[in-house]
TrEMBL record:
Ranges where the Non-reducing end beta-L-arabinofuranosidase-like GH127 middle domain occurs: 479-574
One Pfam family, short name: Beta-AFase-like_GH127_cat
Domain annotation Non-reducing end beta-L-arabinofuranosidase-like GH127 C-terminal: ranges: 577-689
Superkingdom of the organism of origin: Bacteria
PANTHER family for this protein: DUF1680 DOMAIN PROTEIN (AFU_ORTHOLOGUE AFUA_1G08910) (PTHR43465), NON-REDUCING END BETA-L-ARABINOFURANOSIDASE (PTHR43465:SF1)
Coiled coil: none
Stated name of the protein: Glycoside hydrolase family 127 protein
Any one Gene Ontology molecular-function term assigned to this protein's record: hydrolase activity
Annotated ranges, domain Non-reducing end beta-L-arabinofuranosidase-like GH127 catalytic: 65-467
Keyword tags: Hydrolase
SUPFAM superfamilies recorded: Six-hairpin glycosidases
Length: 693
């Protein structure tokens, strides 16, 4: 809150103000928002694409699907009971200071702004996560808690609609003077969180704040003032604006969302006062306009939020050039820059192919270091968010495959099994002593109870919380099964007819899935089943009779008249497979990773003789790995049991003459990658050298 220096500050601000730059607004808002409530949409999806003309697979409502048993039910329960309440204690307390910032900005508390510029956005993500939980469990205490917070946020909002606590609290910065203040990132999460709150409660107290803020952004950005065109760089505001457009049907928000795409790459790339302190060019995807771009470049989170936002815009506009660019960039990410775990962002520091400095992002194609892989949890989650959107736009199952890959591997690895500790970076190998963690800011030897940069934890937790909303989509005349896991679905098809399904499975540990139709319309409709690209040899039966061709990497379509009691059986062979990389990936030459179904495995120190150097662990193609169900180990997993070879003639020199190495056989087990580092510090690797017998 501003204090006695108010009038002097205001005067100086006004004097130093450029044309189009907002004045620092120093009074909180007491005015009523404009009347927008008459035209609100009733769609309740995670993304509300009910009326989006260029979407093939439409959202089910949040709460229509709930996980009932097995893998995702277990993870969701940890989110409901531990992850989200525990995170709330952190963010509402003095360690996280997220809520404090809003209270201070609202004049309800004395103190300073703490946390990074984007801390508000991360707080909104936690609020959003809480609402997804409410959407399923309907615990009114959640709404009461969130309403109390909304009341404080409303008081923090400025009279003109501005809302980003650093500039409200601090005397030394003014709104929209430097893009590194991440104001539009905070905006994006505010808009999204408010839309979700409205969808689940029908209340407009949060939406009022969002509408007022979006009106402010429209007024500020729609004239395209020169000094503001580079601001939208960590672009969650595009997704937020499209979602607000879908909620309020106010076309100006869609227009502004599209404008943020159109502005990128339309100016000379050089440092100016709005970019000071943060890398420019490819780092923030501003060197080449999106529609002309051929390569995924720059900060991986920034890139994928941008693509996800552009996918939302395409859903409304259907512009071919935009979807062509997104397909091209998807291909570049997935087939040239993505890890086997679905993770993205190969490096902490590097350069783009056009020689711009890059942090936390993409480097050259096929350049895939394991130990120093950055793979920010947010980037991996963004990859699944982008793919979820592409799935809805194209109906192409390949996007469901990437969602599934991230969810089961590089997403979940960001949080400990007890739901209280977090990784920011998700490398594929760890070697004790190889990295000096003292010099690093977001790489850690083990998961941490708090991350000063807190973007990843709430991003992951909201993803687990909303995962039931991703599990199914509505097709033109039917329902698509995107994700497998024990659940119940109670929704309507696009024609309004009721459909109820039960899914029973021990996926991803077992490939058998049973889907029972409990209620449906009498007329024929489709049930679409995503057959993962790894699931070769899948069989599909309806009531015991072979029903459809299962082509891996596509949706299998069963079109028929369904009746209550009909049972679909999907049998996906869960084989343990060695996976090798493209020959251009030098970092994994003569090595393989182990994958079973969608789950990538690793080996870590806890399962090896003491002091074993992880780089001395080899696989032998002659030694079979046997899946073993262990319900009481690491939160319930299937391990792969078998023998590895441990090399004894250790290589210590930079280069050394080698003849036949000496190996010792050791009986051990491989664990799912996401579950590593839950048994103390140690070494770990996903890729291992293999001896072919
Ligand atoms: Zn993050």
């Amino acid at each position: 809150m501003k204090k006695i220096t108010f009038s002097i500050c205001l005067l100086l601000t006004v004097l130093s103000c450029k044309q189009g730059t907002p004045d620092k607004n120093l009074s909180t808002d007491t005015t009523k928002p404009r009347d927008y409530a008459a035209n609100l949409d009733t769609g309740k999806g995670v993304i509300n694409n009910t009326n989006s003309p260029h979407v093939k697979l439409k959202s089910i409502d949040i709460g229509d699907c709930r996980w009932t048993e097995g893998f995702w039910a277990d993870k969701w329960k940890v989110a409901e009971e531990t992850m989200i309440p525990h995170m709330g204690e952190i963010l509402k307390g003095d360690i996280g200071h997220g809520y404090n910032n809003f209270k201070i900005a609202a004049g309800l508390k004395e103190g300073e702004h703490k946390g990074f510029w984007w801390h508000d956005g991360d707080f909104y993500k936690w609020m959003e996560a809480k609402m997804y939980i409410y959407g399923v469990n309907k615990d009114e205490k959640i709404v009461e808690e969130i309403d109390e917070i909304i009341d404080v946020i409303a008081q923090a909002q400025q009279a003109d609609g501005y809302l980003s606590t650093p500039a409200i609290i601090r005397d030394d910065i003014d709104p929209f003077t430097n893009r590194r203040y991440h104001e539009l990132y905070n905006s994006g999460h505010l808009l999204t969180s408010a839309c979700i709150h409205y969808r689940l409660t029908g209340k407009t107290n949060f939406l009022d704040i969002a509408v007022k803020h979006a009106d402010y952004l429209y007024k500020l950005f729609s004239p395209k003032p020169d000094h503001l065109k580079r601001f939208g760089f960590n672009q969650t505001q595009i997704m937020g604006l499209v979602e607000l457009y879908r909620t309020t049907k106010d076309k100006r928000y869609l227009e502004l969302a599209e404008q943020f795409i159109n502005m990128r790459g339309t100016y000379k790339i050089e440092d100016d006062e709005t970019t000071k302190g943060y890398p420019i060019g490819d780092m923030v995807q501003e060197r080449v306009p999106l529609r002309e771009e051929t390569e995924a470049v720059g900060h991986a989170v920034l890139a994928l939020y941008f693509y996800a936002g552009a996918a939302d815009v395409y859903a409304e506009t259907g512009e071919k050039e935009l979807i062509d660019a997104l397909e091209r960039l998807w291909d570049n990410v997935t087939n040239k820059k993505m890890y086997i775990t679905g993770a993205i962002g190969q490096t902490h520091y590097g350069r783009s192919s056009r020689l711009d400095k890059i942090e936390e992002g993409f480097i050259d194609e096929y350049m895939m270091p394991n130990m120093t892989a950055y793979n920010e949890t947010c980037a991996n989650i963004c990859n699944s968010m982008f793919n979820y959107r592409m799935l809805t736009l194209t109906g192409d199952a390949k996007h469901g495959d990437v969602m599934e890959l991230v969810l089961h591997n590089s997403g979940l690895s960001g949080i400990s099994l007890d739901g209280k500790n977090y990784y920011y970076s998700n490398p594929l190998r760890k070697i004790e002593g190889a990295l000096d963690y003292e010099k690093m800011n977001v790489e850690f030897p083990e998961r941490q109870p708090y991350l000063k940069c807190f973007c990843c934890p709430p991003n992951l937790v909201r993803t687990i919380a909303k995962s039931p909303g991703w599990a199914y989509s509505k097709s033109e005349n039917g329902i698509a099964v995107n994700l497998y896991g024990g659940n119940e679905l109670n929704t309507t098809l696009l024609d309004g007819s009721a459909i109820k399904l039960t899914q029973k499975t021990d996926y991803p540990w077992d490939g058998a899935v049973k889907i029972t139709v409990n209620e449906s319309k009498a007329d024929a409709f489709d049930i679409l089943l995503r057959i993962p690209s790894w699931a070769k040899g899948t069989q599909i039966y309806v009531n015991g009779t072979k029903a459809a061709e299962a082509v891996p990497g596509t949706f299998a379509k069963i079109e028929r008249k369904w009746a209550a009691g009909d049972e679909i059986t999907i049998d996906m062979p869960m084989e343990t497979k060695f996976i090798e990389g493209h020959p251009r990936i030098e970092e994994v030459r003569n090595q393989v990773a182990i994958k079973r179904g969608p789950v990538v495995y690793c080996i870590e120190s806890a399962d090896l003789p003491e002091k074993t150097d992880i780089t001395n662990v080899y696989l032998s193609s002659a030694k079979k790995l046997s899946p073993t169900s262990r319900p009481d180990f690491l939160g319930g997993v299937t391990t792969l049991e078998g023998e590895v070879l441990i090399r004894k003639d250790k290589l210590g020199e930079m280069y050394q003459e080698v003849s036949a190495p000496e190996f010792q056989s050791f009986k051990t087990n491989f664990i799912p990658y996401y579950a590593w580092s839950n048994r103390g510090q140690g070494e770990m690797t996903v890729f291992l050298p293999v001896i072919w017998n």
